[in-house]
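Two proteins, back to back. First:
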Amino acid sequence: MPENYPNTIAVTVDKSHIVTIGERLYSESVELVRELINNAYDADASEVRLTVAEDQIIVEDNGSGMDIDGLRQYFNIGSTAKRENPLSPKFKRQRIGEFGIGKFASLSACARFEVWTKKGEFQARVIFDKKEWEDSGDRWPLPFEIEEPAQRFRDGTKVTLFGLNKKFDLADIERRIIEAVPIKADNFSVYINARKVNPRMAVGHRIPFLEGTEYGIIHGEIVIAPAAEQDISEAGIECKVKQVTVTRDFFGLEKWVADIARIRGEVNADFLSVTSDRSGFVKDTPQYGKFLEVMRQIVERAKPILDELADRKENRRIRRSLSEVLEKVRTALTLNPDYCPEGWLPVGDAQSDTGQPGYVSVQKDAADSDEAAGAGGEKEPKPQRKRRRKPAVKRLSTTAVIKKLKMGQQGVSCCVDHLGPEEPECISEGSIIYINRDHPLYQKEAQKKDTYILHIARLLTQEICLMKDPRNPRQAFARQSKLLKDALVEQGTVGQPVSRK
């Protein structure tokens, strides 16, 4: 090796790259405000005041402030201080910052920023002018001025951004602070132009959860907002690390929830690793895999509750329509007692006083019994009753709607429930008729009341007629046609159509 060659190579960083990091680190310039406020949170501030003017932004806090070593650490790019000391000294807060480069996001919106700080008897000011710093060649130090400590100033830090080259919308700033700053934490308040920022409270039905894993706790809640409050811009479960929203996710809910804009909530998992710009998670880790596994289980457990809430309004309409249909079918069966399955015949006289078809008697008096016994006066032995098998019991969902049609001593129960889109539109088990509200035909006919009533009446009369004579389906369907006509043609008195002038 020639003697004039060194045996080591120095690692260097071009100064312009630091500016590039600041300008490209975040997709939105509003993120720099979030970073500065979170720095104040890490420094045990109880109050942060943000002032937004036409050409400058000021972020001032009453935290612990910085001494000379603190300032050196502040401008140490990629510092590990917060990772090595994850808890703040005063309030024992989980510190948010990790990489020490967030402050350079300010360079994406201004040409110059100034850091003023006070800690006890130390008070100083550091100025970062982007143009002067780039023009200074290989000189890295920044202008630094130590001031005489003033008793009228409390400990804390103030960062001022001069010469803004981007516009800042106050509503956007507030929205991002609510999402990405731990404003729900104790002893911590944020003000924008003297107005306090309050956390947003999601209105609706809450489904809380708490799960332990080998990596840490996963906790939060899913919120179903009222229909009037649905807003797709606010939808999604906020995924938070150290009380800061990293991203939003539905965890598969969008596949089976119709009104996805009503899904809100948050999940906290402080053990997850985030990307340097805090816009996402480091996904190729066992921690993130476990997080997804737990969240899928939580969503699966919440599904019945979500179904019930989604069906609550629809169920009120179903109950009204089902009551109306059952009353019409009852009238039709009264007009056609021969169509009633065994045991359904209503108790009463065979002929009413008006000569109209009435209720069929199912009881015999003592005289009739003696006459049937014959001349010898001995009664024929009663046939031994067959033991009835209990019908199979189908597990119902929490949103099932059940109404009973009572005829005589028995009757039928009608159950409208979720059976699945691939299942039959209607099935019977014993004296229960199940109507599948997931069937495509049901979904189509349910849009209008008239077609819905016709659909339900068709299914009910179909099953009732098959109960009467299951071995002769052709005759059953002929009877169904007659029952449908008598059920759905408007009636006045029993058996007499309404006269129309």
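And the second protein:
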Amino acid sequence: MQTTLEPQTSFEVSDKGFYGHFGGAFIPEMLYPNVEELRQNYLNIIADPAFQAEFWQLLDDYVGRPTPLFLAKRLSEKVGGTVYLKREDLCHTGAHKINNTIGQILVAQRLGKKRIVAETGAGQHGVATATVCALMGLECIVYMGSIDMERQKPNVDRMRMLGATVVPATSGSQTLKDATNEAMRHWINNPVDTHYIIGSVVGPHPYPDMVARFQSVISEEVKKQLFAKTGNENPDYVVACVGGAAMPPELFTITSMNHRYV
């Protein structure tokens, strides 16, 4: 039976974690206390002026924000428009992942957590998590598919040099999905002292909302930088990769295009 969905009317998450018809927290009962503790506290923690001051100070002085908005002249000529690249690859650790891990490590500290668990695919989120754990002196455990560990050995070495324990996921496809499963199991078994830093806008509420808030620094900078360069704060198009950290996470902003380019 086919159903018709009403148009999305709001991009704001509801108090139950839904974006219109989608979202929520469909989780095992054993995971409920962990997620509920985070849901009840994250907004108040993030809104605290002391949190905001420390978060922005670390983004400025440690991550290296703001990242440049670069006019890609040759690419612009090729596609017939004006293309700017948001250079998130110039962040400390080499990717946008650090924006979120900085935010979540500060949340974890305020929740009294002493250990951090994370999943990683290509290794960028794992490196960012290991980096902030080393910065704050917290134990770090990263689950990574055994096949991915072979493919991305330099990132595995970086995590270990930063003091993280990298645990191979050997079940299933031995890649990101299985690493996530193992990280979830670890969190279920260690609910009191451990925080799970999820790396993307995925998972049960409040993670999609929380990660999006921490990563919104990118769009805030783009609007200011684009206005300074063009007099308009909004691009005509925004193009970004989807599918994880295997590709460089630059944000493409395309303006003044006379045709759609895919």
